[in-house]
Amino acid sequence: MANEIELNPSDTGSELELSYADGGIRAGFPSPAQDYVESGIDLNHELIRHPASTFYGRAIGDSMIEAGITEGDILVIDKSLEPQNGDMAVCFINGEFTLKFIEIDEGKLFLQPANKAYSRIEVTPESQFQIWGIVTYTIKKRNKRI
Prior knowledge:
Blueprint: E1 5-9, E2 17-20, E3 39-42, H1 43-47, E4 54-59, E5 74-78, E6 88-93, E7 96-105, E8 108-112, E9 121-123, E10 129-139
């Protein structure tokens, strides 16, 4: 199991308000374009609910590819959230960070990848284990030119 997360603290001290098409952007049939943008959005305030306990991470590896997480994606990770079955979580197990789904099955805890090439990991009493935080958002680069 290779390191799959590069972690960085969040910085909500700065503000950068970006133009925001608050009427929505259709992914289906086109609609008349808005003549102007009426409001702004600050991604720090939109994506981060608990600044003191939120970190950014960069995904490394391909164990979550079937969940849409690919190499280089930015993860918004909230350490204050209580983990629940099915959550995507950053976990520390046996000396390494990994990104997996939390799965509770018949009273046992597993870390479930989203790639058929990888097996799920059973967390045993002997495991050095901690759920480090819950992924709340992912940010994906869509244009390879930038």
